[in-house]
Amino acid sequence: MTLMDDDLQSIWSPELDFGTPAIRDADAVQVSVTIDGREVSVPAGTSVLRAATEAGVPIPKLCATDSLNAFGSCRMCLVEVDGARGVPASCTTPCSDGMVVNTQTETVRELRRNVMELYLSDHPEDCDGCARGNCELQAMAATVGSAEVRYGRPESRIEVAHPKPIDESNPYFAFDASSCIVCSRCVRACGDIQGTFALTVQGRGFDSAISAGGTDFLSSECVSCGACVQACPTSALQEHSVVELGMPTRSVETTCAYCGVGCSFRAEVRGEGDDAKVVRMIPSKNGGANEGHSCVKGRFAYGYAAHRDRQLSPMVRDSIDDEWRKVSWDVAIARVAAGFQALQAEHGLGAIGGISSSRCTNEEVYVVQKLVRAAFGNNNIDTCARVCHSPTGYGLKQTFGTSAGTQDFRSVEQADVILLIGANPTDAHPVFASRMKKRLRAGAQLIVADPRQIDLVRSPHVEAAYHLPVLPGSNVAFVNAMAHVIVTEGLHDEEFVRERCEDADDYLAFIADPVNSPEATAEVTGIDPAQLRAAARLYGTGANAAIYYGLGVTEHSQGSTMVMGMANLAMVTGNIGREGVGVNPLRGQNNVQGSCDMGSFPHEFPGYRHVSQDDVRGIYEQLWGRTLDPEPGLRIPNMFDAAIAGTFRGLYVQGEDIAQSDPNTQHVEAALRSMDLVVVQDLFLNETARFAHVFLPGTSFLEKDGTFTNAERRINRVRPVFGSKVGMDEWEITCAIGRAMGYDMSYAAASEIMDEIAATTPTFSGVSFARLDELGSMQWPVFDTTSTGTPTMHIGEFVRGKGKLVETVFVPTTERSTRKFPLILTTGRILSQYNVGAQTRRTANNTWHPEDVLEIHPADAEVRGISTGDLVDLSSRVGSTTLRAMVSERMPAGVVYTTFHHPVTGANVVTTENSDWATNCPEYKVTAVQVGVANARGDAAVAEAREPAETHA
Amino acid sequence: MTGSPDARMGNDIARQFAHLPTPEAAEGIARHIETFWPPSMRRSLEALVAEQDDALDPLLIEAAGRLATHAARTEPDAHP
């Protein structure tokens, strides 16, 4: 949707605000009410305010908004109801059948005018929001006809009754109490939507004021999600960008480019063409994944797209020691094509390959795998899912029949027990975490299995029933013990197991073996057997029990086994195939599901079909006009090994920073140095670009036209806010390489690529840009154009027919703590930063996390003489790095923790070559390390030693 | 002992099948490798076996002898 200048009034709220939330109960009876003579039918429980809005009768309001439950404080939405006494607030009055409502009687109009006069009597005439036309108070004053204020009105913000300094501590927004009407929308948004409860109303009566817990916003518990700013009806809470750039003049509906939640946003823009600037990102109420909520990354951290580090020109150099030279697209593409062809001529077809990115669109990654399979003539295509959720793909396909989570995000609202394993959603998937917290506040029980005491273990109004601090590397023993308790205590769903699953007898006998008991595995898992038994009973008897998990599951040498173990647990308790249950991966990157769906793995075509299948290969051979390789290609770590062995010589890397994100940095760098031609396509000269010979500038999500698929299989549209800043779309770059190599691959538009995907992939058959534009989004499988998608999978039958119960034998990792490396390092993420930080490090998000730190237990710190803030050396058998320590009881003794967002600290310098047995997903979560106070090296020396790629805040 | 990454990854797979009777385990390992390993790595593994590399798990050696020339021509089912 693009709004024109004459629609300015609606820019700040183009989505109609119904005042109170919709009633979602599908079984609710319909009631009929008459409002100002208009009859409307609504579900019972709907407020009069909402019903009136639905009937096209807007009622003035200030404290009401449809993202929050009714509060009834502002007294603007007063109405009269036939047969009822008084003037009830329409927001808190539910409709009843036959009700007759009058919204414009002289009585209520006079009351509204009087109330509005009181609001205006302490609202400054020089209010910036009013001047910008960005103030609901001003708009409502005009609506109710409060032209005069009999009590006087302060001329400026310093003349209000209780003037306070503007709080500008947050890097993205300011709070000016002088414009605040204390409607509590911000307080309620922080609590009800975000679940952080950072804001409160301090004082009583006329002295009452909004407060961030008695301190400024930055120092408070505020997580900068923007919900309060979104909710504010005045400009008391206002984005700095609106002040700096002015109000937007048009908006474009698109999808966030950060985590796998895949939030829908309305990019609000000012200007056209090269002058166009994003003023702000407003989360879309109609977004299926986020339903109007956002986090600090999606809401505010988009400035990297216009950062001065952004590269806009193709560049080449003869050797990685040379300076880059800017060249034309033709020269750069010709260099890539000639280089790759020469390598294949000398070293064979398999000497080159490509890596696609989960930060690119489905259409962009599809053409990369097509380039590799059809133009390169091999299957050496892999994607960054290799290092995160490849075990999810393997494990869920083996057990359920398809490589994806089973539910939509909304399903969590029906969960009674939530088992959260190896995931930290409040940091890594914050918008989903808010949904989860809302359900927990409503009474669902939480079990957290994680070595670290994540925020969800205990946070405002949320406390886990059980925190099981499972030791890194012991997940499979843990999940087997959970299933052992359930089966041996007769808590399993015998009917589901017999009717829906296969290999039941073998599995039940295997899991009932005492070696899988909590007592027998306690030494390995570190979990109190009584606690584990209690948690298993809760999961096994809790009606709807849902598993959510993250990289703490997958990034182990038994990651795939653990995924199958969780699938076993869900199947054996019958927690599959309906709302509120399931096995749900929380995927890291915005399009990691999509990049896997699009055939980015070396052994399978789009739709997870093995390259050896003659019928599937035939589809592509006919369409693409090339004979395709029936054998699997190289995975990313295989490419590195082959490069060092001298058989793999050229690599096309789309939007990935493998030199920072992949384990054992020295090994990765050695591999990159061994290659003759490394082509990096990215926004920035990242760490990998230090080893590249050709740099091809990529496009940010604000320039892309395509689709992302999130962790709930939801295909969302990504729409360009402005044109490509580099002169080409990324799929055009890939196609140009193909053509230069003699393979004709061309599309007139990105929509044609999706049309090709739909024509060749059964699970996408009913997908097109036109249908997505019409429906908003769809969750695959979408088998035909009569389908609108599949929110819940495996209802009645698994994709593979019967669910497969797998004997998940626990095989310990070979990575063990030793006398030399007595601690275990595990890694994770933090709210304000994202992945290798290429995007977020180039935003004000550095305010919260300027560097990676090492969390260490007090006992481990004390024996090493380490205090918080000390620079410490972190070393493993493969390398060492230096970073700052933070002494914390969040970690159990013997386990240390860090993030990998900053190249200066380079956590992957110490991670090893160990990987998941089935998929080679790196074992990031288990590295034996030693920690000691660093020698007298300063920060500058550390930074210089690592020679990070250029990064500016 | 070569310290070959192929040996390391093959051994990792073999350990997952070690609880099964040897013939069944060897078949499972072989099918998994056929499904996911490119021919160059399969040939490399066979070469390591021929060289009697002492880093190889005996089950992996058993499996290497059962590797087909080509990847399976139907959707493989490759789990323990």
Task: Give a quick precis of the structure.
The complex is a heterodimer of chains A (953) and B (80). Chain A is an alpha/beta fold and 953 residues long.
CATH architecture descriptor text of the domain at 315-388 and 591-779 in chain A: 3-Layer(aba) Sandwich
Helix fraction of chain B, binned, reads 55-70%
The total number of structural domains of chain B is 1
The most extensive interface between chains reads: A-B, 39 and 29 residues
Report the sheet with the most strands of chain A, covering strand number, pairing sense and barrel closure: 7 strands, mixed
CATH class of the domain at 315-388 and 591-779 in chain A: Alpha Beta
Round the Cα radius of gyration of chain B to an integer and report it: 11 Å
Biggest sheet details of chain B:
none
What is the succession of H and E elements of chain B?
HHHH
Strand order, largest beta sheet of chain A:
13-12-28-27-26-14-15
- Assembly type of the chains comes to heterodimer
Q: Number of DSSP helices of chain B?
A: 4
The computed structural class of chain A is: alpha/beta
Mean pLDDT of chain A: 94
Inertia-based shape of chain B: globular
